[in-house]
């Protein structure tokens, strides 16, 4: 078989990286320098750091996508993993492109809590629910992220009279039900919340805003 080294180099996948939210972990890459030929397909392998053999990911063998879900393959969240991808086009195979080392527990991004607002006359009562991981308990329910981390909730209030961007931290802690008191009737308030992991000094994005007028 005649190798075509130019084609081989130009189809090699670029920027192979893991992205992970609440342990939903996917491997992403970009096509090589060549304008991607229609028939370019990709092959994905993964392994635990320190192992000598790479495992094929069957669902991502000869695919046209630039993403591969490795959530189940990286479920031992304290272990470091690698992923790698190669491309094939017109019968020519590129070399493998390797990701950086990925340790789910250290690197997954944690999502914001779910916030439900129940209001009484001069106060707002919030119910917070931790984001869930993709991993399930024996009975089938998904395990919350609080099982894996010491999480704090940060709750911010936005007084719409004052300023859209002016968020005031009104609570930080572990309670799932929070009461915000001494609010003015007739004023529109919005609540957003974040999940914070002190050990990693990492915050989630803000939750979607929940607004209410007392």
From TrEMBL:
GO molecular function annotations of the record: cytokine receptor activity
Q: What is its main location?
A: secreted
Record's keyword annotation contains Disulfide bond: yes
One GO cellular component term of this record is: extracellular region
Task: List residues of the Fibronectin type-III domain.
Answer: 9-107
Among InterPro entries, the record links this protein to:
FN3_dom, FN3_sf, Ig-like_fold, Interferon/interleukin_rcp_dom, Type-II_Cytokine-TF_Rcpt
Q: What keywords sit in the KW lines?
A: Disulfide bond, Receptor, Repeat, Secreted, Signal
- Keyword presence, Coiled coil: no
Q: Where in the cell is it found?
A: Secreted
Highest taxon of source: Eukaryota
User: Gene3D superfamilies recorded for this chain?
Assistant: Immunoglobulins
Query: Which family does the UniProt entry place this protein in?
Result: Belongs to the type II cytokine receptor family.
**PANTHER family assigned:** INTERFERON/INTERLEUKIN RECEPTOR (PTHR20859), INTERLEUKIN-22 RECEPTOR SUBUNIT ALPHA-2 (PTHR20859:SF51)
The entry's function note states: Receptor for IL22. Binds to IL22, prevents interaction with the functional IL-22R complex and blocks the activity of IL22 (in vitro). May play an important role as an IL22 antagonist in the regulation of inflammatory responses.
Name of the protein in question = Interleukin-22 receptor subunit alpha-2
What is the species listed in this Swiss-Prot or TrEMBL entry? Dromas ardeola
The top of its lineage is: Eukaryota, Metazoa, Chordata, Craniata, Vertebrata
């Amino acid at each position: 078989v005649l190798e075509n080294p130019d084609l081989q180099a130009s189809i090699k996948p670029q920027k192979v990286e893991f992205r992970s939210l609440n342990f939903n972990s996917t491997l992403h890459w970009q096509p090589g320098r060549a304008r991607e030929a229609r028939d370019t397909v990709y092959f994905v392998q993964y392994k635990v750091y320190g192992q000598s053999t790479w495992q094929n990911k069957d669902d991502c063998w000869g695919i046209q996508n630039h993403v591969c879900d490795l959530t189940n393959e990286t479920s031992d969240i304290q272990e470091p993993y690698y992923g790698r991808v190669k491309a094939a086009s017109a019968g020519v195979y590129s070399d493998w492109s390797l990701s950086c080392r990925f340790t789910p527990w250290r690197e997954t991004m944690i999502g914001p809590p779910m916030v439900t607002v129940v209001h009484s006359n001069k106060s707002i009562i919030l119910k917070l629910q931790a984001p869930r991981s993709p991993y399930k308990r024996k009975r089938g329910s998904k395990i919350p992220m609080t099982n894996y981390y010491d999480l704090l909730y940060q709750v911010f209030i936005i007084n719409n009279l004052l300023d859209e961007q002016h968020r005031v931290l009104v609570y930080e802690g572990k309670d799932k039900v929070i009461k915000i008191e001494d609010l003015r009737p007739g004023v529109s308030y919005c609540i957003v919340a974040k999940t914070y992991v002190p050990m990693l000094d990492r915050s989630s994005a803000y939750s979607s805003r929940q607004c209410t007028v007392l």
